């Protein structure tokens, strides 16, 4: 797989850029930014993706590691949706010994 990424640097760059943008939007984005800041943030991500592409071409497993992070985030999202559908995510159960505290 590393040889294929090494021989296709443009596709490697685009994959890394997509993964970086997805991770940023899923983890770090709180609200929409003004358009100038949005452009600046995406420009910095594009430059960072270029640096990560260089590391990927030098045989570091950047895409594989970022893919694992994305898979884990998708698993978390699926678990949150499952809990929401089952109704377990909205009810907070008190601890079992909350009413049994004895004072000396």
UniProtKB/TrEMBL annotation:
The keyword Transmembrane helix applies. Pfam families: YlaH (PF14036). Keywords: Membrane, Transmembrane, Transmembrane helix. The chain crosses the membrane at residues 6-27, 39-55, 61-78. InterPro entries: YlaH. This is YlaH-like protein.
């Amino acid at each position: 797989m590393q040889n294929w990424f090494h021989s296709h640097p443009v596709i490697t760059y685009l994959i890394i850029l997509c993964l970086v943008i997805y991770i940023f939007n899923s983890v770090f984005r709180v609200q929409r930014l003004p358009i100038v800041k949005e452009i600046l943030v995406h420009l910095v991500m594009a430059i960072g993706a270029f640096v990560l592409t260089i590391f990927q071409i030098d045989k570091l497993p950047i895409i594989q590691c970022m893919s694992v992070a994305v898979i884990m985030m998708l698993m978390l999202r699926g678990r949150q949706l499952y809990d929401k559908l089952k109704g377990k995510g909205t009810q907070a159960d008190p601890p079992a010994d909350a009413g049994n505290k004895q004072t000396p």
